[in-house]
Design goal:
The chain has 322 residues and is α/β, with parallel strands linked by helices. The chain has one domain: P-loop containing nucleotide triphosphate hydrolases (Rossmann fold), CATH 3.40.50. It is built from nine helices and nine strands. The strands form two sheets. Strands 1-9-8-7-2-6-3 form a seven-stranded mixed sheet, with helices on both faces. A two-stranded antiparallel ribbon has the order 4-5. Strand 4 and strand 5 form a beta hairpin. Helix 4 packs across helix 5. The longest helix has 33 residues.
């Protein structure tokens, strides 16, 4: 833990002053017990298509026990709902969906974690209907960001319509039959007007995004994280995340950026060194400051932290004490 700041070491130190239990990977893997492995190699290959190294052992050791733990939380939450409905003498009220927030830096692997959990949690009989949304849909359109002079801060908290995101999660949590998420197109790097993803009373909703664990403030007295039943922070050393970001930029340069409709098509013709230099510039000027100022400070608010090593494997799990 040498590179993780003094604040982090205090956070995870295995003594009575820490709010977390620190669990080594081998110990965590044993907690899966007899939980079957629901995913096949072909499905894991699809996750690798996101650009992150992943194998059957990683899914079995890390995400199998995690899905089992979250399943237990979801069952317990349903029992609380049942008892509350009984107390209120309203037995026919629908239970609220179980909402999970997943936070972490750009390029740390949040999307992969979210997709694996979506597919694994849907295999449990208690939660067959699992939906995943990302907060990209709640970014202000580029036109608005340009008008406000904050286009260079896309991904920072002020670039999101936090009220709209809160309104959406509140609708889902209150049992609305349907709630809409604006569609964000990564090819054009913008919101697509009039296009939405519909969320229809899931058993579990996963909300993945950079800033989903942001606390309430004077301007925003209720935070979206206040509506989460469970939350995960995906963590790694800053230097490792930067390298992952640069590697991802190089892959996109050779793939998505070459699409003539891509917002980033002007980068497709860069040679490798120029692309590396530009990726480092983006990291140092935008993503690292956002990580340090806004994202990493929310880590201590998570229910669980996945601590990654340089090869993307999870080596430690920090679980909030109950």
């Amino acid at each position: 833990m040498t590179e993780y700041s003094t604040e982090t070491q205090a956070l995870v130190r295995p003594d009575l002053t820490s709010p977390f239990i620190e669990i080594a990977r081998d110990e965590w893997a044993r907690l899966a017990g007899e939980t079957p492995m629901p995913l096949k190699e072909a499905e894991i290959e699809a996750y690798r298509g996101l650009g992150e190294p992943l194998d059957l052992a990683e899914v079995g050791d890390v995400y199998r026990p995690l899905s089992r733990l979250i399943n237990q939380y979801a069952i317990a939450e349903r029992e609380v709902h049942r008892r509350t409905r009984s107390f209120l003498r309203r037995p026919n009220d629908r239970p609220s969906p179980f909402v999970i927030g997943i936070a972490g830096s750009v390029a740390v692997g949040k999307s992969t974690v979210a997709r694996i959990l979506r597919d694994m949690l849907a295999r449990w009989p208690e939660t067959p209907h699992v939906q995943l949304i990302t907060t990209d849909g709640f970014l202000y359109p580029n036109e608005v960001l340009n008008e406000r002079g904050i286009a260079h801060r896309k991904g920072f908290p002020e670039s999101y319509d936090r009220r709209a995101l809160l309104r959406f999660v509140t609708q889902v949590k209150s049992g609305a039959a349907e709630a809409n998420v604006p569609h964000y197109d990564h090819l054009i790097y913008d919101i697509v007007p009039g296009e939405f993803t519909k969320v229809k009373r899931p058993d579990i909703l996963i909300v993945e995004g950079l800033n989903v664990l942001q606390p309430a403030s004077m301007d925003h007295p209720l935070a979206v994280s206040d509506l989460f039943d469970f939350s995960i922070y995906v963590d790694a050393r800053t230097a490792d995340i930067e390298q992952w970001f640069i590697n991802r930029f190089l892959r996109l340069k050779d793939q998505a950026f070459s699409n003539p409709d891509s917002f980033f098509k002007r980068f497709a013709g860069l040679d490798e060194q120029a692309a590396r230099d530009l990726a480092h510039e983006f990291w140092a000027g935008i993503n690292e400051p956002n990580l340090i100022e806004n994202i990493r400070p929310t880590r201590a608010r998570a229910s669980l932290v996945l601590r990654k090593d340089a090869d993307h494997t999870v080596q430690k799990v920090l679980l909030r004490k109950i």
